[in-house]
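One record is given unchanged without comment:
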Amino acid sequence: MTTFPDGTLSPAPWRRALVTGGAGFLGSHVCERLLASGVDVDCLDNLSTGHADNIGRLTGRPGFRFLEYDLADPACPNALAGPYDLVLHLAGPASPTDGLERPVEVLDAAGRGTRNALAVADRHGARFLLASAPADDGDSPLAAPPPAPGDAADPLAPRTAYVEAQRFSEALVAAHAGARGSNAGIVRLFAVHGPRMRTDDGRMIPVFVRQALAGEPVAVTGDGSRPCSLCYVDDAVDGMLLVAAGRSVRPVDLGSDEETTDGEVARRVIELTGSRSPLVYVAPPAAPAAPCDERPRPATGFAHELFGWSPRVPWEEGLERTVAALTGGSGRTPAVVTGHDDEWPP
């Protein structure tokens, strides 16, 4: 039996789940939580951005299988026998850096990959959930902004592949739900952080940690006052599974209502790593399409009201855990990272 946020008890509503991108940062946490809840898991990943070490502790556990396939391969759906009653689609390069360095993979994952994942879910009558993101959640400290809403996308702009991939995958899921009656939903994840983040993916916290450990200036875009909200990975997984257990088609934002600033995050990273790095402020790489303090913020009312979800880990605690994991305990934070992986949902 497991405890829902409203206090009622219920077993996890699935027997076997397919988690695409399951060897990635977020996917590995999802696999762990499902297994701990008694759900068998097929973890699919081509290891282009995921890593086998992320799921090393799961290998050999009853109910867990790792499948090394490229989801964008037309033959991939036939290799997934199932049967599944849940498909969680997290596959594809998801960071700002990946969008710049792997644009074709980003677009393939959004197009062919999402279509194949939907086909598997439809074949088994499974609930499908796409893990998406806002067009720009501001998690890259030096990323140029995307086009303003309503502007035509410039196909030669460096971040076009990343931005349009998010839009297309969401449109594809909505089209399947509307035209084919697929039991499909979408969650938009805002600035999720925690253990197993890649140190090279260009996101704000890993960049700050790398700079601090190297003794380099920790560079913050703008004057450091831009608001940001950080969502710890355990809370994000809670929200995903609650949305997956429903039938909502409407995109659900998952992020923290607690705000801090980019400058405060950078200062805390310097403190947590014990670094002597200076904090510097730099101009964005291109003229912003909106004022510097405008970054998409999660509209979490729907998640609160319909699913009873609220983040439980304060941003400072989550940052301490994340920095400890990224540094292997080399900072002043204990290396042991605790969570609530044995609960589904909270």
